[in-house]
Structures are given as structure tokens and as C-alpha cells.
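Dear colleagues,

I hope this message finds you well. In preparation for our joint manuscript, I am sending the Clavaminate synthase-like protein (Aspergillus lucknowensis) sequence together with its predicted structure, so that both groups work from identical material. I would be grateful if you could confirm receipt.
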Amino acid sequence: MGSITEPNHLPSISYADLRHPDTGIRYKAAEAFRQALGDYGACRIRDHGIPQDRLDKCFEKCRLFFERDAGEKIADHGRSGVASRARFVPYGSEKTRGEAHLEEVLQLRDGIYDSGGNWSFEARELICASETLHATCSVIHRTLLDCLTSSLRLSQSLTAIHSKENSYFAPTYFAPCYQDGEILRVPAHIDPTTMLFNFPDSYGGLRVADLRNRTGNLSAVEMQNTATFIPTGCQPGEFVVLAGNLLRRLVGGMKHSVHYIERPLGSSGFHLNYWTVPNMDTRCDFGDKRETVQDYLARVFPSTFGHS
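The corresponding C-alpha cells are as follows:
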């Protein structure tokens, strides 16, 4: 029950305990979740109830979609007719501080599943496999928000300022790499989200900064230069929760996760990511910055959120 912490790995929290009918068990698990986000901006979630075969099916549909010629995938998205609900990110086209992300991503915003669109067979199969996972993640996300609201005794419910409309499911592909300089697939960064859920394949590769005893400047550059990064230690039947910068802006005492992804030479594979942002008119003032979520997202990540 509660939290399990292994040496140099993130704490593991039982989702079943977070929903347990015994209030004492629920409280203990919620406190462990809050503490993990206060220490690392991240934790593992186990006992979440998502069958492994459902995740495996989605990974297989990822293979059908992504292991095609780059031009096919770009054209697939271009002719879909539902660009406001889906975004295809070609290999190396997204950058952090000038460093390319060596991955491809199909970002699916809630509502895409009812939008139809002129997709290829491979894309339709992947979108169909993503639909149930997206919906299940939305339920888990609401539970985690409720736990934080209760544990932190917030006057405003975090659930009340989040709607499913602002949730995304993003299958991600890591093509094989054959040079040492390509082991780092995604450089150290902070997500402009409330939370991101990461379901890794067997290679994993996600590492997070150990933020215990860290205060003040938690920028990606500062942490990259001074922090120790640890593997998540994600086990079969677990996923990783990463707190985004928006959660830190909304809730005092939280830390946003600083993380990067590295993969073995020659390996290819997939991650499944789910993330959320608050309602666009929510205030997310932080320090001397006074702005709404919409203003913030248009400023820091316009390629994804500028149209919202």
C-alpha cells in the first residue's frame, strides 16, 4: 500500500489505494503522491487497471502507422481534414533550445475520435486503438487532481478548471539510431502542461531530475547543468506521471518535472503519452508574469496551442 521507493528510482504510488473505500488508505496514498511531486515533480503509478494487452495493441498500431515513409505520414495528416484536432510532428522538426527532438509524434486532441477525417487505414487503426486509452487516462487524471485538491486543502478544485476538451493522447515513435550523438532523443525540458502520463515500451529511456532539496530556479538549463538525473524505474504495469509547469503555477509547493529521453544505439520503439492543460481562461500568474493559460501556451508552445 501507499508509496514504494527503490534506490535511485521514482516513488511508486498505488492508484487502487488512491480510490480505496478506506479513507485512511486513500489519505496515505494521496499524501505520498503529493510528496513525490514535491520531491521530483514525478512518480510512478501502479495498479491503474489498464490491461497490458490494450497497451500492446496500441504499440502494434504505432508500428503500422510510423514505420512508413516520412512523406506518407505527412501527406496522411495533411489530407485528414481534421488538423484542429490532430498534429503530426515529423522526425527532428521540434526543438528545445536548438536541439532537435529525435522522435515522431501523432498528437490527438480529445474530440478527434468523433471527427472522422480522411485518414489512411494505418492512421485509423492507431486512432481507434488510442481512443479507449485516452478515455481511461482522463478518468485517472481526474482522480489525481482530486487527490491533490484534497491533500493540499485547496479552496478551488483542480478538477473544476480542467475539461476533457483540453486533453491529448500522443503516440510517439523513436526510429533506430546508429551514432553516439543520437542516443539523446529528447533533450532536458519542462512540459507546458498540468500533467503528462508516460507509458514506455521495454526500453523506456525517460530520466528525471532529482529535485529533492532543490528550491528557486528549476529551469531545464540549470537542472541540466547541476542536477542528478535518475531513471524512472518504470516496471510492467506502471506508468510515469510528470508534473508540468502549469501545475507548479497553479499549486504552491509543487515542482515541475525536468526530464530527458535517451535510447540505446540501434533501438527503435514507442512511448504513449497523455497530457492535459487547464481551461484556457484560467489564470496562471507566476512571479511577475500575469497571464491566462491561453496566453501562456501561445507564448511557450505556439505550434501546439497557439490556435486554441
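For the figure legend, we might mention the following. The longest strand covers residues 167-174. Residues 10-305 form a domain with the Jelly Rolls fold (CATH 2.60.120.330).

With kind regards,
E.M.
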